[in-house]
Automatic annotation (TrEMBL):
Native source organism of the sequence: Methanobacterium congolense
Job description of the protein: Catalyzes the first step in hexosamine metabolism, converting fructose-6P into glucosamine-6P using glutamine as a nitrogen source.
Major location (coarse): cytoplasm
Name of the gene encoding the protein in the UniProt record: glmS 1
The protein's Enzyme Commission number: 2.6.1.16
Keyword hit for Cytoplasm: yes
Reactions it catalyzes: D-fructose 6-phosphate + L-glutamine = D-glucosamine 6-phosphate + L-glutamate
Record's keyword annotation contains Cytoplasm: yes
Protein's cellular compartments: Cytoplasm
MF terms in GO: carbohydrate derivative binding; glutamine-fructose-6-phosphate transaminase (isomerizing) activity
Keyword tags: Aminotransferase, Cytoplasm, Glutamine amidotransferase, Repeat, Transferase
Lineage: Archaea, Methanobacteriati, Methanobacteriota, Methanomada group, Methanobacteria
SIS domain ranges (all copies): 36-174, 198-340
GO biological process, any: fructose 6-phosphate metabolic process
The protein's name: Glutamine--fructose-6-phosphate aminotransferase [isomerizing]
Catalytic site positions: K345
Amino acid sequence: DMAEKGGYDHFMLKEIHEQPDAVKKTLMELQDIKEMVENFPKFNRICFVACGTSYHASLVGKYLFEGLVGIPTDVLLASEFEFSAGALDEKTLAIFISQSGETADTLRALRMANETAQTLAIVNVLGSTATREADHVIYTRAGPEIGVAATKTYVSQLTCICLLALSMAGEEKLLEDIQHVPDHMKLALEAEDQIREIAKKYKDAEDFFFIGRGYSYPTAMEGALKLKEITYIHGEGYAAGELKHGPLALIDDDVPVVAVVPPGDSHDKTLGNLQEVKARGASVIALGSSDDEVLKSEAHEMIEFSGELNEVLSPIVYVVPLQLLSYHMSVERGIDPDKPKNLAKCVTVE
Ligand code: G6P
């Protein structure tokens, strides 16, 4: 068992550490993706469909396709897809994101979409049902993922979606930058000792908020999902600008707030939201650039990222400490993060 885990205490921790390599392997799909894109007809709409962590990867896709490619993009939960299926047509590219390629809700939606739209499946498991039924397939090259909570497959999904959107947008500079993402992830993993200490400090909290804007909003949602899945603590991922429309009423000194604040367009506004929750007593755990002195001075805990990284690519890197935070909180709480209660790796019922 220990051998299978490569010396790590859990598969999840092993898989978190495998992420730079998973992304590196997935980046090798670029040529195939470019060829696929060359043969695409002109789409006037993109529609992502997924569940769970794969849904959060899809949310990043919306920002990429609308922000860089300029194609209107929707993101639908697979279990809600049937209520929107009527608006699909042959000019729609429906993109199904699934680690397993076997999730029942996702497969059902894929079958419905196949009747009208062009379908593309982004899947980790070779030969799985989704790969056999979709019109086009891109594989995430994360290797087998054993831990129930998705980690390395998520960053590989994000990588595929980036490669696809950047290829469609002809963003050659960002396609060069993305080659350096595995190095940024390695640096992010170096914060593990600090994160373990933060986990010890906050392990008894009953509620957590995770906030971010734009590209960092899905990261906040994924951070909250990881927390729920493996620590059984209530976590909410919120668009930072939406806090004032309700959740601010829940913030007090018992609620830690994790703020995802990379350098970029949304930085200053999220910083403002961070100050708002701080004024209401919250402990703030901030994720941001090691050069960001203002953020450092505002946060109670600061998880730092060194090196320059375009905000567009930041979701692939900034999720890493959030996975580690949930992992270590899970272990501190005496939970087996590989086998969270009530959850399955692959859900084959609707
Ligand atoms: C289950 C897993 C999640 C996963 C979701 C979607 O709920 O526990 O980790 O994100 O299914 O799975 P898929 O294989 O379609 O990505």
